[in-house]
Amino acid sequence: MAQTAVMGAGSWGTAFAMVLADAGNDVRLWGRRPELCETINAKHENSDYLPGIALPKEITATHDPAEAMAGAEIVVLAVPSQQLRDNLVSWSEHVPADAVIVSLMKGVELGTHKRMSEVIAEITGAGPERIAVVSGPNLAREIANREPAASVVACEDQGVAERLQKLCHTASFRPYSMTDVVGCELAGTAKNIIGLAVGVCVGLGYGDNTKASVITRGLAETARLGAAIGADPVTFMGLAGMGDLVATCSSPLSRNRTFGEKLGQGMSVEEVMGQTSQVAEGVKSCVSVSELAKLHGVEMPIVEHVAALIAGEMSPDELVSRLISRQAKPETV
Ligand SMILES: NC(=O)C1=CN([C@@H]2O[C@H](COP(=O)(O)OP(=O)(O)OC[C@H]3O[C@@H](n4cnc5c(N)ncnc54)[C@H](O)[C@@H]3O)[C@@H](O)[C@H]2O)C=CC1
Ligand SMILES: O=C(CO)COP(=O)(O)O
């Protein structure tokens, strides 16, 4: 068992802190707002993000990053992807030199096109044997309700992945280990964008054939970019790929799918933003992933159309009709 720090007390940071505590670890949860930390410590509940869920007593919250990470063997990062860089710059002096840094985030940075593990390596100087990713079909509320689910722990060092796997294996959470960090991160990021597209179709009133078509072709274009950036193609068939895509695209709990659904119903991006208190990563990552694909000469039509929709360059109806009327071709990845 280990001393762990979870940096980010939103829905997934808190739910994953529960997983770590259930697995027998000591958990310090860093929260941005002191008053939320006080409530968590006093009431053992994160009333803002997971209301009604009793947190294990082993979780203590703090607003002080130095206190959160003091002596931590495992540092878990759970803030919105576009906010990671700024936070990590201010936290890096407190990250213990030998701690394994675990990303829960599912996004690609705007401007740099870097995956979160690349941002972590750049800012902390940690080598690949100290950087890991957890990703899979893990909607925070279901995990916090201790509904059974599987996930993937990826680290280039298989031994480190296996250690983390043991540290977060509980009676309801079953992690698998793997070494494909690139594939895991890309799959997690792209599924948010495909989830937005599926949500748009749901909002327009389309049914399961449409959803399944977008999911399947979404996975194909994700795997295409994966092949270009060095991912293992098998990852896209696994929990971080197909698994997470199905969970996100099927569930009303998904913020990305819900965001898309509201767009499909006719709301503007600004209107939906105004109603959304939690992060829908695909809204930003559609731009960075679309640019990354272009840099690698890879076509990602669904991602590109979602980026155009978010930029206000096309309507939900146009998104669907333009994708359907693309030139006919063989079904290849
Ligand atoms: N919620 C879920 O079901 C899952 C989320 N994820 C990923 O985990 C990451 C975190 O997501 P959630 O916890 O769900 O998001 P959230 O929106 O529920 O919470 C985000 C947390 O980051 C904090 N935050 C926001 N802006 C910040 C800033 N500028 N500086 C520092 N902290 C800031 C918020 O106060 C909050 O504590 C995302 O990349 C998401 O895609 C991954 C798997 C499941
Ligand atoms: O990543 C998730 C489930 O695995 C959560 O999806 P949303 O961010 O769309 O809610």
Automatic annotation (TrEMBL):
UniProt-recorded Gene Ontology molecular function terms: glycerol-3-phosphate dehydrogenase (NAD+) activity; glycerol-3-phosphate dehydrogenase (NADP+) activity; NAD binding
Binding site for substrate: K106, R255, N256
UniProt-annotated binding residues for NADPH: S11, W12, R32, R33, Y49, K106, A140, R255, V279, E281
Origin: domain of life: Bacteria
Enzyme class: oxidoreductase
Similarity comment text for this entry: Belongs to the NAD-dependent glycerol-3-phosphate dehydrogenase family.
Name of protein: Glycerol-3-phosphate dehydrogenase [NAD(P)+]
Organism: Aeromicrobium ginsengisoli
